[in-house]
């Protein structure tokens, strides 16, 4: 899904949300409580997830659709390994990245449509039903009134979620039985605008929703740009009607949309079962990033350090794993770990070194520590997250970057939170002398990560040009090629 808060599944113990079908995956699989995304920007996170590498390695920081030619994906290698590959709904990169490797593509989001909105199959379905004017992303919600939270005028059968379940079920029924399959079904929501259909639009009573805790000093000690982003009416993501009443109403519809998605996940799981495919199909549920969903009294996304947008749900059900059904794991993991995990589960060798690490051992052993730190990033800001602390370091950014809407990170210094004492991240202790040694240690972790993941270019094109046994240096050349190149560029030698 796109943009769901990690706590908003009933299997986490949330007192309000109802997600019985997502819970089915958790109850028959393993749920991670400390899964993080590599970026809280849709396209950046998705490309990192599908390449197994950090954002600064992939080079995709924004939603601009600019990709390096040599990006190599999870899906491309699964296709080459004999899998029939399919994507339903939103990839956010399908037409722009020739190496993505999907064999079957069902477009259900405008991010896939370069020439015309009519490339969107789901949009065409709504138009053919004579209700194009009520399409949720071109009609009522475009004004972003009431925080973009309105009941949809489309019946449930014409919602994107229902369409996605239909085309996924169609693929499950008609896929090539002679090959295994990899099917990526991606809901464009619960990303705002929040517009559930009946009966989900009034499933939750705004007055009864239990709001996350807040603190009156919360925003006083955060970097100025973070604070201004949410309180300065001249900024793009400012919500001028952010009152408690408006927040409650928005959350009620956001929750309704999550339950609407959950119901369609149930339809897909049911069909998987009736076809007998549940016995040998690994099922994974996750999100490209989170949503504040009332944390710190705000909604949406955009602030680098805070857990609401970085922590994501991650449920993995492997039908071969009988002993860990309903298990909960607390190790630190990242979406870039999914690619090597899938390959290990499927018995496929990794095509080339990547930063992600298989988490099969974490799934099998609750006591295995795994990583001691996780990392994620925006432009001009890098964050390190351990079990005990989270710290972001900000760069003020280059000239002109301050005009970019997604960069809420133009501030001097940073943020540091003691997650043992302050799990809600209300009190920034970055400049607190008592945390000086902690801050230094985390800064060194951040530098070590950035240095160790610095792109060492061994291009696939160069590897294919030569014999696979040929040794390469860090410029993707043989030693003799590099020697000639080096001497040409250093004439004094």
Describe it.
By secondary structure, the protein is α/β, with parallel strands linked by helices. It is built from 14 helices and eleven strands. The strands form three sheets. A four-stranded mixed sheet has the order 5-6-1-7, covered by helices on one side. A four-stranded antiparallel sheet has the order 8-9-10-11, covered by helices on one side. Helix 6 (160-174) packs parallel to helix 8. The relative contact order is 0.14. Mean pLDDT is 86; it is low at 232-238 and 457-463.
Short characterization:
β8 and β9 form a beta hairpin. The protein is α/β, with parallel strands linked by helices. Helices cover 29% and strands 12% of the residues.
Descriptive labels:
11 strands; 493 residues; single chain; four-stranded antiparallel beta sheet; globular; alpha/beta; four-stranded mixed beta sheet
Major sheet strand order? 5-6-1-7
**Parts with pLDDT < 50 across at least 5 consecutive residues:** 232-238, 457-463
Taken from the alpha-carbon principal axes, the silhouette is: globular
Count the DSSP helices.
14
Which structural category fits the helices and strands? alpha/beta
- Most strands sheet: 4 strands, mixed
Proportion of residues in β-strands:
5-15%
**What is the H-and-E element order?**
HEHHHEEHHEHHEHEEHHEEEEHHH
- Which oligomerization state do the chains in this entry correspond to? single chain
Helix content: 25-40%
Ends distance: 56 Å
Based on CA atoms alone, the radius of gyration comes out at 23 Å
Rounded mean pLDDT score = 86
């Amino acid at each position: 899904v796109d943009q769901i808060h990690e706590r908003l599944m009933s299997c986490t113990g949330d007192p309000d949300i109802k997600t019985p079908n997502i819970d089915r995956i958790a109850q028959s699989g393993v749920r991670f409580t400390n899964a993080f995304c590599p970026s809280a920007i849709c396209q950046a996170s998705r490309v990192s997830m599908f390449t197994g590498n950090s954002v600064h390695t992939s080079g995709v920081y924004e939603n601009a659709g600019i990709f390096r030619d040599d990006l190599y994906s999870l899906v491309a290698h699964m296709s080459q390994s004999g899998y029939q590959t399919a994507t339903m709904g939103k990839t956010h990169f399908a037409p722009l990245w020739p190496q993505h490797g999907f064999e079957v593509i069902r477009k259900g989001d405008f991010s896939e449509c370069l020439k015309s909105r009519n490339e969107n199959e789901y949009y065409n379905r709504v138009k053919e039903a004579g209700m194009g004017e009520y399409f949720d992303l071109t009609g009522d919600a475009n004004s972003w009134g009431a925080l973009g939270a309105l009941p949809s005028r489309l019946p449930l059968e014409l919602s994107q979620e229902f369409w996605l379940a239909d085309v996924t079920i169609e693929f499950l029924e008609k896929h090539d039985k002679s090959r295994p399959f990899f099917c990526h079904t991606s809901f464009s929501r619960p990303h705002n605008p929040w517009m559930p259909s009946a009966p989900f639009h009034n499933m939750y009573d705004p007055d009864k929703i239990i709001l996350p805790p807040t603190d009156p000093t919360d925003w006083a000690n955060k970097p100025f740009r973070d604070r201004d982003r949410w309180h300065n009416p001249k900024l793009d993501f400012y919500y001028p009607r952010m009152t408690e009443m408006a927040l409650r109403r928005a959350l009620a519809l956001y929750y309704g949309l999550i339950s609407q998605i959950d119901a369609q996940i149930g339809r897909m799981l049911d069909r998987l079962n009736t076809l007998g495919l549940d016995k040998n199909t690994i099922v994974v549920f996750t999100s490209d990033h989170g949503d504040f969903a009332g944390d710190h009294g705000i909604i949406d996304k955009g602030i680098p350090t805070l857990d609401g947008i970085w922590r994501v749900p991650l449920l993995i059900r492997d039908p071969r794993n009988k002993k860990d059904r309903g298990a909960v794991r607390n190790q630190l993991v990242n979406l870039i770990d999914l690619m090597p995990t899938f390959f290990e589960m499927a018995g496929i060798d990794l095509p080339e070194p990547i930063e992600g690490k298989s988490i099969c051992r974490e799934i099998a052993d609750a006591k295995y520590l795994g990583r001691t730190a996780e990392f994620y990033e925006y432009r001009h800001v890098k964050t390190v997250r351990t079990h005990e602390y989270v710290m972001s370091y900000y760069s003020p950014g280059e000239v002109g970057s301050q005009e970019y809407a997604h960069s809420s990170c133009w501030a001097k210094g940073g943020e540091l939170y003691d997650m043992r004492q302050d799990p809600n991240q209300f009190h920034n202790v970055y400049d607190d002398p008592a945390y000086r040694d902690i801050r230094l240690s985390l800064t060194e972790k951040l530098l070590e990560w950035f240095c160790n993941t610095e792109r060492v270019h061994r291009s696939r094109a160069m590897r294919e040009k030569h014999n696979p046994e040929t040794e390469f240096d860090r410029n993707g050349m043989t030693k003799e090629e590099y020697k000639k190149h080096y001497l040409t560029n250093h004439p004094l030698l």
